Amino acid sequence: MKSIQAKLPKPIADALAKQDVFVDALFKRPESLSALLPFDEYIAESGIFRNKDGSLGVVFEVNLLEHEPMTAENVVMAVESLKSWFSLPTNCTLQILFDQACVSPLDPLFNEVEGFYPNPHPVSKALFERRIKEIRAACNTPHALAPLSRRAFVSIRYFSEGSGARLGRDFVKRSESVVFKEMKSFVRESREFGQIIANFQHNSKVCLKQLDAQELLDVLRRFFNPKTYYKRSFAKYNPNLPIADQVIYNNPTLDYGGIEREGIRTKTLSLKTSPQYAYPGGMAYFTKLPFPFKLSINVTFPTKRQVKTFFDMKEFFLQNTPSAKARRQREEVLQVQERLAREDRCLHATINVTVEGETDEELEGRVREVVNVFHNTLECETVLEDDIGLGLCLNTLPLNYIAKSDYSSQRFIRILRSDLVNFVPIFDSFRGTKKPLGVYVSREKNLVRFSTIENQTSNHTVVLADSGSGKSAFIIDTIQNAKRMSPEPLVFVIDKKSSSVMLSEYFDGDLTIFDRNKDMPFTPFRGTYDEEKFAFLSKLLVSGIKLTSPTFEFDSLHATAIGKGLRLAYEKKVKQAGLAYIEGELLKQST
């Protein structure tokens, strides 16, 4: 054994010589990134998360607003209503995360839309299933049909004051009342935090949904497993294990600039200055970015004393600096102090954007597009984080941000509450209707569930678009989607051109071509035999007679005669229909 050890490297020889070290090397799990994550347990009774450091937290999902149909007044009202979000006490932090990600092919939405209409027309069913299959295959790929989903989360983290120091003193004293004191303190703090949560949710004009442990796990797993997430389902939440140990399924690679998970790397940008061009609705520009990204706003709430000390000191030094730039900055400081005196509030906000990509070229291209939005639309400066990108990227995760991280990164900007509300990303593209006839991918990459007849009061639809924009294709698609309904509806199409010729072939319809120089060839006996069609045509003729001859006394005998006449006419039409040789060619005989 000694001769073998002499030939081995010293670390291996030491491990073989010491049994405990050898066993640890074989079976002990190495240090994991999950040990650095704060997520610990979920208290189901109150919906609160307790972190490893003793802090409490809660995560809300924001019901994003569809910006296209909103008027300017609605946009302004929605943005101004967010001021209540930034009224938290100083021992809380607020995180706002706007997450634009690829739609998973396992998303239950696909199964949902397929099951709305149980007995569709075979042609409509085949076309619809083909479209769903193509969209599913394009998910999480560079394909033009790859849809994106947008979600926003609001996280509140509550820090108790002095809990760690108090716990340490009690253990030193070996007091028998440690458990009682800590339990009493925890109950008091959880109740206080519960009141903060209730007020926050009640005062918010934007609808908020509180997430449970399973839903938070889903958000974290999509970040740490960006490829596996789209291939299979994960295990359910296990309350007997810390949440941090149920997140990572593949080994990530960490460096200063970001994190690499399953071959997908991240780059993080920070705002260096506050945006100069602030207006409600400006953040809707980010819905035009055609790739996944995360926009994070981490907010801390300094005390009034800290804010006053900073601005008083800055005003003092600017007042004694004889330059034009100093005079202009002093005027801005005085304006800020005036607004603070009028019930505004100064906040510390760290604004980051994290983009993802598999290659350097892909990452650089996406970074340029994000920078273009910030520079040309919002007029602010950005910093590409090559040294602290990893820490800032992890800080964007819900409940993973603490105020102390700002001391090392120094990326926060001082901004007034009335200005910050304009940069909260609460907008989404049009998501569609609740009971769709068809599914589309919009120009902003949303998976749109669409129907033109879901409105109960007015089912009229007008399509306006330029020449060559695909109006006819859209109308044909809308018609064939309507044939998914049960019972199958009648569809009347009046078109100047011949865009709908094939529809009459596949849906047992009849095509009539009108010529202004000839007699109108229209007949009401269209398509296949249907008793409901005869009842409708009978009532239509009765209504026409009553409108044109108000004095005519109409009774049930006349209605019976009309119905019988329609059936006889249909039988004659069937007998006349068939094939005939016209000029040597076998053609369908006209009726």
Explain the overall architecture.
Residues 1-6 and 163-172 have low confidence and may be disordered. With 591 residues, the protein is an alpha+beta fold. It has helices spanning 2-7, 10-17, 19-27, 72-80, 108-114, 122-138, 163-173, 178-203, 213-224, 304-319, 324-341, 360-378, 389-395, 405-409, 417-420, 471-482, 501-506, 531-548, 556-576, and strands spanning 39-43, 48-51, 56-62, 65-66, 92-102, 148-158, 208-210, 253-254, 259-261, 264-271, 293-300, 346-357, 382-384, 413-416, 427-428, 438-441, 447-450, 578-582, 585-589. Helices cover 39% and strands 17% of the residues. Strands 1, 2, 3, 5, 6, 7, 8, 9, 10, 11, 12, 13 and 14 form a 13-stranded antiparallel sheet that branches. A two-stranded parallel ribbon has the order 4-15. A two-stranded antiparallel sheet has the order 16-17. The relative contact order is 0.12.
Keywords:
alpha+beta; 13-stranded antiparallel β-sheet; 19 helices
Summarize the structure.
The chain is α+β, with helices and mostly antiparallel strands.
Q: Measured on Cα atoms, how large is the radius of gyration?
A: 33 Å
Q: Which percent range fits the helix content?
A: 25-40%
The gross shape turns out to be elongated
Largest sheet: 13 strands, antiparallel
- Uncertain residue ranges: 1-6, 163-172
Helix/strand layout:
Blueprint: H1 2-7, H2 10-17, H3 19-27, E1 39-43, E2 48-51, E3 56-62, E4 65-66, H4 72-80, E5 92-102, H5 108-114, H6 122-138, E6 148-158, H7 163-173, H8 178-203, E7 208-210, H9 213-224, E8 253-254, E9 259-261, E10 264-271, E11 293-300, H10 304-319, H11 324-341, E12 346-357, H12 360-378, E13 382-384, H13 389-395, H14 405-409, E14 413-416, H15 417-420, E15 427-428, E16 438-441, E17 447-450, H16 471-482, H17 501-506, H18 531-548, H19 556-576, E18 578-582, E19 585-589
Parallel strand pairs: 4-15
Antiparallel strand pairs: 1-2, 2-3, 3-6, 3-7, 5-6, 5-11, 8-9, 9-10, 10-12, 10-13, 11-12, 12-14, 16-17, 18-19
Helix pairs in contact: 2-3, 10-11, 18-19
